[in-house]
Every structure is written in structure tokens, then in C-alpha cells.
């Protein structure tokens, strides 16, 4: 018993000793840590100041510049040196990055880089300085700190099958890859498989660096190729500007699902009456070209077919409360080639037409002397409320600017007054449209005029409504607006007689009076030199008043589009200057002097102030001949004597007068021997348009005018490739040009040679296959045949070069700018070089959200300005 007690006591003593030793070590560790974190007062210099912390200590931000903060073990500077930027920073960074630094605390230094850190890059930071700091402290930090930006990784990966139209029932595999950083497609190709499982060819779609890449397969039948396949992006791929590539393969693999039979999932009706539809929902998209052949409707009605992804829309005049049988025969194919395995039949009952109110006419203007009945159509409504509100004339701009629209329609309480409110009972048959009329003239009366808002609402459900804006007036307004000119013409609507003495006012969108005048006896008011008066404002609406009558013309609703009409021609000068160039005669011999006069005038023939401009002359082959600098100091008139050398080429010489890069005038003259040409030069090509990489065969022929060919005569030529605008007939509203791309003209000499015995010579010019212009190109060919005495006769021909096999055009489906919350419609067309529509298996259309950021800075006067 005593031995047991002694053993217990011995163990207890040992545990106590161990616990005491642990407490001593812990306290020493805490003291050591606190000693490192709490700086004790210094009595002398510390020549071995260390770094206790650095932030960030691992990953840097590449999206925006990231500041680096370094915490030292000692105070380094006095308080009066804090927050002062300087460039001689006590750190070295490799790779080098410029920046400034400052001490934000006595012991914390901050480095502010001038640019973002490079992506996927490791940076080495050395702390070193020969400077002596507070208390005589000096930095002695042997360590090198490593920080880096995140390495390149794949952040998203997904696949989809896209159906193609040709071959029918085939598909393409689309592989979408999103990277953390932009990658170069050329480098990415080296790390992608060329085929899927050695069978299906893959092609990278993108041509420019991007974070999002799409790989597209060749067409295939998913019935024959499906299952799991290996797919990997191999290691070693680097991002644009990065130094650390991917360290491991990214191998997600790809699964192509086995096609399932097409299944009818649902049949439902939408609406009733004309243009109502029965919607058939499928498990997958069907081939639109054959849908109508497999579907029958009983009782029989005429219908059209449209498709929305996996839904088939049968559009026709489905009678309300009628039951229709929809039958679909087996064998109908999906786009992937799967068949409907058995016949399908379903009955669908058409519901009643939803209650509705509509104004069938879009007319706005009503003559005071004509009919003032407004038609309204209702369906399945027993009682309506008719409301008429007047808009006060001084609120027209605000009203027309859409500022009065609310959730349930127009809200004109603040802009005018309600003058009529009444309920009407209707006698209508179920599901049959009923047309009624509202006598606006009787409601308004003879004394009122101007703008009114007429609304018809279902009495017990006011959200079922329609409204129309009505202008009651006898004043008809026509206007013509250009950059510096406005003409307004006012006539009576009843008798089309001119209205003299009417007040005409032009308002801006923000309700400012820009111009005002009275019409003359012809009913016309003319405003000239308006550019300065309306500068900074948007002309919005014209109002016309006369003897209590009011009318208006809103520009946005009344502009006539000229895009589909040939309205080309020399416009009136609206701003800047133009030059009229002429010479004493139009034809000169080599060795003579051309006496040229240039007259420069401003808008409306105004005399210009003194400024320099230049006149450049090009020879018959389009090369620069001479250039002169002129001035407008002598009343805008300058005389120029142009010496034509005795060896000058014959043909047409073109002059262009420019202020900077702006063309202000053109002129041409001929240089010819007065004896007539003795030879005729012709140039021909086998086609009028060529593709990139094609060989252009150029036939040159020289013939003496009195019969025989120019056998053995010298021949030469020149080729110029210039950017052109691809604008085929019928597609003038589409844009086919990339304005961000520039193209430098290409000049090429055709070598000098001799004509053969028949006076012919053939040149070959191969169009480069690597041309990347903003649109199509124009090739200008010139050929020159010389007589034995040196006299030359040239011929010219232009052909089109199509560097792209397909031109994609985009048309904006709305005027002006898009509005937030409203759909923005665009049309896309694919054309070949001849302007003919061309089928495409798939087209990627990308929309970019461009965010503009403005910086507002307060200046020394306390005013905030955009910088």
C-alpha cells in the first residue's frame, strides 16, 4: 500500500515538473513574439533592421494595380516625413515595374505601382537601401520575398451540340473554354487536339486573343459518334503577357450524348381568332422544312408553321370554343436526325378571346373642319370608360418626351387637365370584335384645340386599355432641316392654303426655345445660319400657333429615311470651306505651263480668313506629280503656274486641294500632244471580281488606229489595291465594314516588256491570301503602251477584290440610341462577294456591353470637373 502511494506521488511530481517547464517555454515564446511586435525605445542605431511582414504575401491582383506594404522591425522616419511620394524606393522588383512609394507609418513603407502586374508572373522583391534612417537605422534584409499573380487556369468548360442545315440531320460539337486570362489562339492551337478520338476534326473559331474560346467540330451524325471521349488542353499553355504557363494538363473529357427519339411533350393553345396559334412542344428541335408535311389539323384550316427552338407554332384563325385535333405522323425528324417513332394525336380546345381594347387607326391629326370620329375596337367587354385629357400647350415638349408615361399608361395630370370621363355599356357578341366610334369633336367642342390623350378602359379592369394621342388643328406643317438651315411651311389642312403670320417656334428636347419667327404670305418661315444657335442642343419639336390654333411637328416621328434612295450629289456647304479650281484651258502639251486659279470660300460664299492649304497633283498613273502650298490672304484667290516637263506622260492629271486631310476642291486637266493619238490601248480581265489568293490575268492590247497591231512596242503597268466599301444593291441599310480595321494601300509595278506580234501582252498578278481590310478592296489596273518616239497612251480598269468568302452585315432595327429596358433588334445577313445570300451552318453574334467611366475632380476653386 505504501509503495503504491509513493508511486502516485512520484508521478504527480513528474507531471508538475513537466507542466512548469511547458509554462516557462510558452511564456518565453510569447515574450519573444511581443518583443518582435512591440518596438522598444531605441537608445542607439539598429544596423540590422528586418522586414516583419509584407502584404500581399502571396497572390497579386491583375485586374487593377495592387499596392505593396512592407512592415519593418524599427521606426524608420519621423512623423513629418509621412505620406510624401518619392521615386527612390528602398525595394527592387524583378521583373521590373515602375512606381512611387511613401511611408504611411513610421515603420510601414507602401509601394504604388504605375501599372498592373503582369498576369501569371512571379515577382522577386529585394529590400535594400544605402540610406540611413531615423536613429541611424539601416536596412539589412538578406531575404528575397516572392509574390505572384495567379497562374493561368481554365475557369469554365462546357459543350453543346449545334444542329446544321447541311448536311441535313447532322450536328457540330461546340466546345466552350473560358480562361482566367486572355490567351493567344495561335498558341492555344498547339495545346489542343486536332481531332476528337482521331475521328472528328476540331477547329478553333477565334482569331484574336480572348478569355473565351470556342472549338468547333466538323459536321457529324450523333447516331454514329457518341459516348465519352478524351479531351485535354496540354500543359505549357501561357496567357498573353504571362511568364508562368499552365503546370498540368486540363483534361475534362467530353461526352457526346446518344440521341434520344423525338417526343411530343405538350400541346397548348395561345389566343384565339386571326393569328392565334397552337404550340407543340418537342423534346428537341425539329426540321422546319418538313414539319408541315407531317401535321394535319381537323377541322381543316389554313395555317403556317414557325419554329422557336424546340417549339412548333401553328399559326392560323383558330375559332374560340372550338376543339381541334392535332395529328403528327411518325417519321418526322429532329434536326439531329431522330425520328418520331409513332403517330401522335391530341385534342386542344381554343379558349375565348381575352378581353381587349384597341384603336385600329394610328392617325394622330384631326382636321377641325373634317370628321372627328375616332374608331375603337373591343372584344368580350361589356362596359368601358372613355377618358379625354387635354395637354396644355406649354407642356408639349415634356409630354412628347415620354416623361409622362406610367405603369398603366400616360399620366397627364401634371401636364394638363381631364375634360371628359364617362362609362358606356356595349352590346357585343361573345368572341366577336365590336367597332364603336368616339366623337372627339363633340366632346372637345368648337372652342378647344391642341393635343389630347384619349383612353378607353375596361370599367372593372382598368389595366385592359388602349390610348391614342389626338391633335385637333387646321394647321399642316412641313419642315426641312439641315446642318445650318431650317425651313417651315404651314398650310391649312382643309383647303391647303398658305398660312401667313403664324408663330413658328423650335424647341430643344430639354424645353429650350432655339428659334422663333413668323411665316410670310407664302406660309414659309426660313431660318439660316442656325448651327451656332442650336449648338449643344437637340432640335426636338416645332410648334405652330395662329389665332388660337395649335399644331406641332416632332422630328423623331417625321424624319424621312433616305437610305434606300439614290440621293447622292454635291451637298450644300454647311461648314468649313470649299475651293473652286480652274485653268486657262483644259489641254496642255508637254513643256507648257498650266495657269491655275484657286478660289476659296466659306459657307454662303463668305470670304475666308488667312490660312494655308495645299494642292497636290497626281499623274495619269495615279502617282504623286507635284505639291504646292497656297494661302488665302489675297481675298481667298491664289494663282499657280505649273510647269509641265517636256518628258511628262500624256493623259489626265488630277488636282486635289486640301486643308489638312479635308478635301475642299478638285480639278483635272489633260497633257497631250496636239496631234491625235496614233494608237489605242485597251486593258481587260477575265472577271470583274476576284477572291483572295486568286491570279488576276491582265490582257493588254495596243493597236495603231490605222489598222495594224503595235508589235514590239514597249508596255508597262501598275496595280493599286485600295480599301473599298462592300455595299451590294438592296442592302444599303446594312453595315459590312469593320471601322476598327485600317488598311494601307498596296502599290505594285508591272514589269516593262514588249507587245507580241499581235500587239498583245499578258500580265499576271496574284492577290495576296493574307489581306485583312475593313471590307472589300478595289483593284485599279493601268497599262501604258509607248510609241517609238516615247509618246504613251494609257488605259485603266477597276475590279473588285473579295478578301473574305463571306461578308456579314448588321442592320440596326431602331432609330437613334437603344433604350434601357426595351428590346434592341438587329438583323444579320451573310452575303458572298457577288452580293447574293449564302447559307451558313452557324454564325456567332456577340454583343458587348461597353462601360464608360468618368472621373470627376474638384479643382482649386471648389468646382467639380470631368477629367
How would you describe this protein?
It is built from 6 helices and 58 strands. Mean pLDDT is 85; it is low at 27-37. The termini are far apart. The chain has 8 domains: 1-38; 51-148, Immunoglobulin-like, CATH 2.60.40; 154-256, Immunoglobulin-like (Sandwich), CATH 2.60.40; 264-349, Sandwich (Immunoglobulin-like); 367-471, no CATH class; 475-557, Immunoglobulin-like (Sandwich); 578-671, Sandwich (Immunoglobulin-like), CATH 2.60.40; 676-867, Immunoglobulin-like, CATH 2.60.40.1930. It has a 5-stranded antiparallel sheet. The protein is mostly beta strands and 867 residues long.
Task: Give the SSE map.
Layout (H helix, E strand, L loop, with lengths): L1 H36 L13 E5 L12 E5 L18 E4 L4 E7 L2 E6 L8 E6 L16 E5 L5 E11 L5 E14 L1 H5 L5 E2 L3 E5 L5 E8 L9 E3 L24 E3 L7 E7 L2 E10 L5 H7 E4 L4 E6 L2 E8 L4 E6 L15 E6 L6 E3 L6 E3 L5 E7 L3 E9 L4 H5 L4 E2 L2 E2 L5 E10 L8 E6 H5 L5 E9 L2 E13 L1 E7 L3 E8 L10 E6 L4 E6 L5 E5 L10 E8 L2 E6 H4 L19 E6 L3 E2 L4 E9 L10 E7 L5 E8 L5 E7 L7 E9 L2 E10 L7 E7 L3 E3 L3 E10 L9 E10 L22 E9 L5 E7 L10 E10 L5 E11 L4 E6 L13 E6 L24 E3 L5 E3 L1
Parallel strand pairs: 23-31, 40-46, 48-54
Antiparallel strand pairs: 1-2, 2-5, 3-6, 4-5, 6-7, 8-9, 9-12, 10-11, 11-12, 13-14, 15-16, 16-19, 17-20, 18-19, 20-21, 22-24, 24-29, 25-28, 25-30, 26-27, 30-31, 32-33, 33-36, 34-35, 34-37, 37-38, 39-41, 41-44, 42-43, 42-45, 45-46, 47-49, 49-52, 50-51, 50-53, 53-54, 55-56, 57-58
Amino acid at each position: 500500500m505504501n509503495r503504491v502511494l509513493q508511486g502516485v506521488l512520484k508521478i504527480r511530481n513528474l507531471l508538475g515538473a513537466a507542466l512548469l517547464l511547458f509554462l516557462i517555454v510558452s511564456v518565453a515564446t510569447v515574450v519573444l513574439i511581443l518583443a518582435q511586435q512591440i518596438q522598444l525605445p531605441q537608445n542607439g542605431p539598429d544596423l540590422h533592421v528586418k522586414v516583419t511582414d509584407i502584404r500581399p504575401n502571396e497572390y497579386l491582383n491583375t485586374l487593377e494595380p495592387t499596392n505593396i506594404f512592407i512592415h519593418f522591425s524599427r521606426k524608420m522616419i519621423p512623423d513629418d516625413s509621412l505620406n510624401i511620394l518619392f521615386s527612390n524606393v528602398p525595394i527592387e522588383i524583378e521583373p521590373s515595374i515602375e512606381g512611387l512609394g511613401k511611408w504611411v507609418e513610421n515603420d510601414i513603407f507602401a509601394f504604388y505601382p504605375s501599372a498592373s502586374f503582369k498576369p501569371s508572373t512571379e515577382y522577386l522583391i529585394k529590400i535594400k537601401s544605402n540610406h540611413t534612417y531615423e536613429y541611424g537605422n539601416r536596412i539589412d534584409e538578406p531575404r528575397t520575398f516572392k509574390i505572384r499573380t495567379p497562374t493561368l487556369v481554365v475557369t469554365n468548360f462546357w459543350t453543346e451540340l449545334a444542329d446544321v442545315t447541311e448536311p441535313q440531320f447532322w450536328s457540330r460539337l461546340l466546345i466552350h473554354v473560358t480562361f482566367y486570362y486572355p490567351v493567344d489562339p495561335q498558341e492555344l492551337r498547339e495545346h489542343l487536339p486536332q481531332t476528337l478520338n482521331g475521328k472528328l476534326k476540331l477547329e478553333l473559331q477565334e482569331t484574336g486573343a480572348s478569355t473565351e474560346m470556342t472549338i468547333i467540330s466538323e459536321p457529324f451524325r450523333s447516331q454514329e459518334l457518341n459516348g465519352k471521349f478524351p479531351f485535354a488542353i496540354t500543359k505549357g499553355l501561357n496567357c498573353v503577357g504571362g511568364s508562368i504557363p499552365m503546370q498540368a494538363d486540363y483534361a475534362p473529357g467530353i461526352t457526346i450524348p446518344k440521341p434520344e427519339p423525338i417526343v411530343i411533350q405538350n400541346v397548348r393553345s395561345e389566343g384565339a381568332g386571326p393569328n392565334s396559334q397552337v404550340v407543340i412542344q418537342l423534346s428537341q428541335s425539329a426540321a422546319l422544312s418538313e414539319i408541315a408535311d407531317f401535321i394535319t389539323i381537323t377541322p381543316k384550316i389554313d395555317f403556317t408553321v414557325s419554329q422557336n427552338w424546340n417549339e412548333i407554332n401553328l399559326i392560323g384563325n383558330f375559332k374560340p370554343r372550338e376543339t381541334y385535333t392535332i395529328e403528327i405522323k411518325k417519321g418526322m425528324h429532329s434536326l439531329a436526325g431522330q425520328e418520331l417513332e409513332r403517330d401522335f394525336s391530341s385534342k386542344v380546345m381554343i379558349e375565348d378571346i381575352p378581353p381587349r381594347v384597341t384603336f385600329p387607326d394610328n392617325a394622330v391629326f384631326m382636321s377641325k373642319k373634317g370628321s372627328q370620329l375616332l374608331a375603337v375596337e373591343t372584344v368580350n367587354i361589356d362596359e368601358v370608360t372613355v377618358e379625354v385629357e387635354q395637354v396644355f400647350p406649354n407642356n408639349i415638349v415634356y409630354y412628347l418626351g415620354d416623361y409622362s408615361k406610367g405603369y398603366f399608361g400616360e399620366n397627364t395630370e401634371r401636364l394638363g387637365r381631364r375634360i371628359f370621363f364617362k362609362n358606356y355599356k356595349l352590346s357585343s357578341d361573345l368572341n366577336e370584335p365590336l367597332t364603336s366610334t368616339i366623337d372627339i369633336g363633340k366632346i372637345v367642342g368648337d372652342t378647344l384645340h391642341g393635343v389630347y390623350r384619349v383612353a378607353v378602359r375596361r370599367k372593372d379592369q382598368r389595366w385592359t386599355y388602349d390610348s391614342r394621342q389626338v391633335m385637333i388643328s387646321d394647321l399642316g406643317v412641313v419642315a426641312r432641316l439641315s446642318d445650318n438651315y431650317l425651313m417651315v411651311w404651314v398650310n391649312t389642312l382643309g383647303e391647303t392654303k398658305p398660312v401667313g403670320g403664324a408663330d413658328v417656334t423650335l424647341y430643344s428636347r430639354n424645353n429650350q426655345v432655339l428659334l422663333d419667327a413668323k411665316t410670310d404670305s407664302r406660309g414659309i418661315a426660313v431660318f439660316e445660319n442656325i448651327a451656332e444657335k442650336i449648338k449643344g442642343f437637340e432640335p426636338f419639336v416645332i410648334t405652330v400657333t395662329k389665332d388660337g390654333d395649335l399644331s406641332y411637328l416632332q422630328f423623331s416621328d417625321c424624319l424621312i429615311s433616305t437610305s434606300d434612295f439614290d440621293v447622292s450629289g454635291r451637298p450644300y456647304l454647311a461648314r468649313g470651306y470649299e475651293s473652286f479650281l480652274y485653268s486657262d484651258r483644259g489641254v496642255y502639251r508637254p513643256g507648257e505651263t498650266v495657269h491655275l486659279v484657286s478660289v476659296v470660300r466659306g459657307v454662303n460664299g463668305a470670304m475666308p480668313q488667312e490660312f494655308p492649304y495645299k494642292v497636290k497633283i497626281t499623274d495619269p498613273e495615279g502617282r504623286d506629280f507635284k505639291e504646292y502650298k497656297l494661302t488665302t490672304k489675297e481675298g481667298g484667290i491664289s494663282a499657280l503656274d505649273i510647269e509641265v516637263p517636256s518628258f511628262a506622260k500624256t493623259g489626265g492629271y488630277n488636282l486635289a486641294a486640301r486643308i489638312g486631310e479635308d478635301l475642299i476642291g478638285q480639278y483635272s486637266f489633260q497633257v497631250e500632244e496636239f496631234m491625235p493619238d496614233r494608237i489605242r490601248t485597251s486593258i481587260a480581265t477575265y472577271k470583274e471580281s476576284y477572291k483572295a489568293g486568286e491570279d488576276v490575268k491582265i490582257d493588254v492590247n495596243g493597236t495603231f488606229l490605222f489598222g495594224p497591231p503595235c508589235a514590239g512596242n514597249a508596255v508597262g503597268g501598275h496595280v493599286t489595291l485600295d480599301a473599298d466599301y462592300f455595299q451590294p444593291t438592296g442592302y444599303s441599310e446594312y453595315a459590312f465594314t469593320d471601322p476598327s480595321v485600317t488598311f494601307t494601300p498596296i502599290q505594285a509595278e508591272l514589269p516593262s516588256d514588249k507587245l507580241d506580234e499581235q500587239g498583245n501582252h499578258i500580265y499576271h498578278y496574284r492577290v495576296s491570301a493574307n489581306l485583312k481590310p475593313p471590307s472589300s478592296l478595289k483593284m485599279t489596273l493601268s497599262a501604258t503602251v509607248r510609241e517609238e518616239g516615247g509618246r504613251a497612251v494609257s488605259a485603266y480598269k477597276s475590279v473588285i477584290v473579295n478578301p473574305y468568302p463571306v461578308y456579314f452585315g448588321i442592320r440596326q432595327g431602331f432609330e437613334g440610341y437603344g433604350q434601357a429596358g426595351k428590346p434592341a433588334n438587329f438583323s444579320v445577313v451573310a452575303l458572298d462577294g457577288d452580293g447574293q445570300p449564302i447559307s451558313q451552318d452557324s454564325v456567332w453574334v456577340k454583343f458587348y456591353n461597353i462601360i464608360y467611366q468618368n472621373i470627376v475632380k474638384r479643382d482649386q476653386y471648389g468646382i467639380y470637373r470631368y477629367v
